[in-house]
Design brief:
Number of strands: 30
Distance between the termini: 64 Å
Largest sheet: 8 strands, mixed
Number of helices: 28
Structural class: alpha/beta
Strand order of the largest sheet: 21-20-18-16-15-14-29-30
């Protein structure tokens, strides 16, 4: 027994080795493809497909039966040798015939299921009312946890906060105020605020499996991140907008009045969007079920137990345990996506596997006497242990919500554990194919889910590729534990990367190292988190102690995600199409085949690892030598941050003054890293529009920042508050810019020309309150206008500063080169070089052709980030100026 127990995880029993059993794979794939393609099909097409498939399957089975009878009669008269040969041939011929018949039956079943589910989008009065944008009063039953839509930067503002609730309309009140019974899935959107800042200004809401969709009603749309709302009050919503909506539990029945509209994106599982008026409160018609109330209390207890933890652990632990991502900030969410660790935020099969392994013992020992699990140590018989495992699985589904994604996770987790526990490598693929088939028949919408696809691919890789890769690594003297971890992480990444590239148009280069670094922390965080979940209702002090212990591995996981995402070469852009996915799959296959040869030479492995490390870290001195960026002697750099502004003024080696931060923390952080800026004595935020301030966390990340200087006109208020919160979180003082102020850092000096002291130009809005700077560096004079518009531009031209701005060398054109410019100021400034920061394909038409023409007519060379990328102005000792592009 001791010899047998020395087998490694995933090793098959010698007597159970053999070829893979693939008979269930074609039926499962056929059902998957059919469900995905027939969800929106007409009833006539679905019915015809079902009839044809049933008739064809019946014919094949009848032929198979008759040939089987003929073969049996022939064998009675044949010799023994002929019997053996023909029996083998007959078996080989019968296998494809039965498989084709089974596939046709599965196609018929999948088409019927998809037709019934798709009919929910067309039946009843809801779709017709949505086409008319009708205002209705309906009764809806909530089918998922409420979540907040994550705000997006759109132009100069953030999209408003909205609570999103998936629900099912059960009745619609007609013109005569009589209720008409129906059943139609809808997305309820409740406007609850006017927008928040990103990355830490409020709790963000991230996805279980990285799913993102686009929903809309009328003239509005929002980005959706599947997340979890509050439940049962405790520790759920706090003072957040829409708290009463976020506290609702699935199975609650509400009476709601709102306007119906068709969804913007087709192919989703909703018949309409129901937009509820702002500040409306939910009216409960029926309370949630007892099961949902129990799940809500358990989840609320876990949130309460984690209240006092550090920020990252407090956010991550509920997501790691039960998929409650209501505290995950957008910044942390992006870090997990960039490192391909988003699966740790999801309710995945690994959660259940870890808990069951604690009960049963290490999977590789499950059939041995010395199983080492908690159950055998307590003397629990094997059958009772299996029953306890079933109870744990059921509890997992209840607590994590019995929706399709959780059922998928439970099925995949149970399959992984069962297959590894029995050591039957031949049973792995049939078990997975069975799970796929049953889940697709139960919920055909899973067939179109990227999360489902990634889950199946990862599970298949762990069951098939990983054991073989692990054995190959062990043959090359890699330690067993390290070989297991490398094989699992590498196999999952290899098969999932093409699909992830379709979703994100990016390939992570740090996914495997980051997954290896967090692997040892996932199990203790999950086990301790579940212990806190179970303990919270009866002993909250003990639950808090367990949560505190779990916070250490959870904090490590978050730290790895943040550190990996902060690396400048953490990922490379990739075509976000299925053609790009195919290209990546081919590249991955070539890399795997090449890797088998490279593993024979340890020195070559070390060289490849060192090169990858240099690509990922990208030390600025080495990057400058290889790429020529940033050019030596640069004085001003305009970062390419899309539709926004972010400018850096060189103030010494590794020192730069940042003017505006753009709309995206990641983009400005990357720009500053490539410029080698590690110390920022001052951040100037010209005004509080989101395309200038939302990227502030990227400037503050990992850099010494002296102060933040802003305009005195604090509108929009939410974004001004966002800036103050970010500054307070990092103990950075915030000061106000006033015309006439002069500052110097090294050889760089600048003067504030606008806004003037006294009342801010409130009638003309935030743009006309932009901080305007005249910068002097290495003999160059550079004018940065922020987003000033003609009223303020004309006032500046009449101010005492008018003489200072005549004939400058460089002009940062106001408001992304919009048509709203004062021609007299452009003629007076008469720049040699005009720089415009704008996003490629932006919907505003920036820069305006008239503005570009006016600048060129005045003798300026015009360069723009949407076409030229990041730009750097270089000046030599003689005062000559040139522009370099990244």
């Amino acid at each position: 027994m001791h010899a047998a127990s020395g087998r490694r995880l995933g090793d098959a029993h010698p007597r159970q080795e053999g070829p893979l059993d693939l008979r269930l794979v074609p039926p499962a794939l056929a059902a998957w493809a059919t469900a995905a393609s027939t969800l929106g099909a007409s009833p006539e097409l679905v019915g015809g497909l079902v009839v044809v498939c049933l008739l064809a399957a019946g014919a094949l089975l009848l032929v198979h039966r008759r040939r089987g009878a003929d073969d049996a009669g022939w064998r009675d008269d044949a010799s023994g040798g002929s019997r053996s040969t023909e029996s083998a041939v007959g078996g080989r011929r019968a296998w494809p015939r039965v498989t084709v018949a089974a596939s046709l039956l599965c196609v018929a079943a999948a088409a019927a299921s998809a037709g019934l589910h798709g009919a929910d989008l067309r039946r009843g009065p809801v779709p017709a009312l949505a086409r008319e944008y009708a205002t209705v009063t309906v009764e809806v039953e909530i089918t998922s946890d409420p979540r907040l839509a994550r705000p997006r930067v759109r132009g100069d503002h953030l999209t408003p906060d909205s609570v999103l609730i998936e629900a099912e309309v059960r009745s619609v009140e007609g013109p005569a105020r009589t209720a008409v019974a129906t059943r139609a899935p809808v997305l309820v959107i409740v406007d609850v605020g006017s927008g928040w800042g990103t990355s830490g200004s409020r709790p963000g809401f991230a996805g279980r499996a990285g799913f993102a969709g686009r929903w809309g009603a009328g003239d509005a749309d929002v980005d959706v991140k599947r997340g979890q709302g509050g439940a049962d009050g405790a520790g759920s919503s706090g003072g957040r907008p829409g708290a009463s909506w976020l506290e609702l539990l699935p199975s609650t029945c509400l009476r709601v009045t709102g306007r119906l509209a068709l969804p913007l994106a087709g192919g989703d599982r909703i018949a309409a969007v129901l937009r509820v008026r702002k500040h409306a409160e939910p009216v409960t018609v029926r309370e949630p079920t007892a099961v949902q109330r129990l799940a809500g209390r358990l989840r609320a207890g876990l949130r309460t137990a984690t209240e006092g933890l550090p920020t990252d652990a407090r956010a991550l632990l509920p997501g790691l345990v039960v998929g409650d991502t209501s505290r995950i900030t957008p910044e942390l969410d992006e870090a997990f996506k960039d490192t391909d660790l988003a699966h740790t935020l999801a309710v995945s099969g690994s959660n259940l596997t870890i808990i069951l392994a604690l009960l049963l013992g290490p999977p590789g020992l499950a059939q041995q006497v010395e199983r080492r699990g908690l159950a055998p140590r307590l003397g629990v018989p094997l059958r009772t242990t299996a029953l306890l495992g079933g109870v744990l699985t059921l509890g997992f589904v209840v607590v994590c919500r019995p929706d399709p994604s959780v059922l998928r996770a439970a099925a995949c987790g149970a399959i992984v554990l069962f297959a590894l526990a029995t050591g039957r490598r031949r049973s792995l693929i049939p078990a997975l194919a069975t799970a796929v088939l049953l889940l697709v028949l139960y919920d055909p919408w899973l067939a179109r889910s990227y999360g489902f696809l990634l889950s199946v691919l990862a599970t298949g890789a762990l069951l098939t590729l990983a054991p073989r890769w692990c054995a190959s690594l062990r043959r090359r003297r890699v330690p067993s534990r390290l070989a297991e971890a490398l094989a699992a992480a590498g196999a999952a990444q290899a098969v999932c990367a093409p699909v992830v590239a379709v979703l994100s148009a990016r390939v992570s280069l740090v996914a495997v190292p980051c997954n290896l670094l967090v692997e040892f922390a996932v199990a203790p965080a999950t086990v301790l988190g579940f212990a806190a979940l179970a303990t919270a209702p009866v002993a909250m002090p003990a639950a808090k102690s367990l949560a505190w212990l779990a916070s250490w591995p959870a904090g490590w996981i978050a730290g790895v995600a943040r550190a990996g995402a902060a690396l400048p070469g953490a990922g490379v852009d990739w075509p976000g199409s299925w053609g790009g996915a195919l290209l990546l799959a081919m590249a991955t296959a070539a890399a795997v085949m090449l890797g088998r040869r490279v593993l024979r030479y340890p020195w070559l492995c070390g060289l490849c690892a060192a090169l990858l490390l240099l690509v990922v870290v990208q030390p600025p001195p080495l990057t400058r030598v290889l790429t020529g960026w940033p050019p030596p002697g640069w004085r001003l750099a305009m970062c390419d941050v899309g539709q926004g502004d972010a400018t850096v003024l060189a103030a010494g080696e590794g020192v730069g003054v940042v003017v505006d931060a753009g709309p995206d923390p990641k983009l400005v952080d990357r720009c500053l890293h490539t410029l080698g800026v590690t110390r920022v004595p001052l951040v100037v935020l010209t005004h509080f529009h989101a395309d200038h301030v939302a990227g502030l966390p990227g400037v503050l990340r990992g850099r010494a920042v002296g102060a933040i200087e802003t305009t005195g006109f604090e509108e929009p208020r939410e974004q001004a508050e966002f800036v103050r919160k970010e500054a307070r979180a990092r103990n950075v003082p915030v000061v106000r810019a006033v015309a006439g102020e002069r500052r110097r850092v090294g050889a760089l000096d600048w003067e504030v020309l606008w806004p003037p002291p006294g009342p801010a130009p409130e009638p003309d809005g935030p743009n006309d309150a932009s901080v305007t700077l005249l910068v002097r560096s290495a003999g160059l004079r550079m004018l940065l206008l922020g987003d000033l518009e003609p009223p303020a531009q004309q006032a500046l031209a009449r101010s005492p500063a008018a003489e200072l701005v005549r004939g400058v060398d460089v002009l940062k054109v106001a408001h992304h080169g919009s048509a709203y410019q004062d021609p007299d100021l452009i003629r007076a400034v008469a720049p040699r070089l005009a720089l415009i920061s704008c996003g490629e394909g932006n919907p505003y038409g920036h820069p305006a052709p008239s503005t570009v023409a006016a600048l060129r007519a005045g003798g300026a060379v015009v360069m723009r980030t949407d076409r030229d990328g990041a730009l750097a102005v270089v000046a030599d000792a003689g005062g000559d100026m040139r522009v370099a592009r990244d």
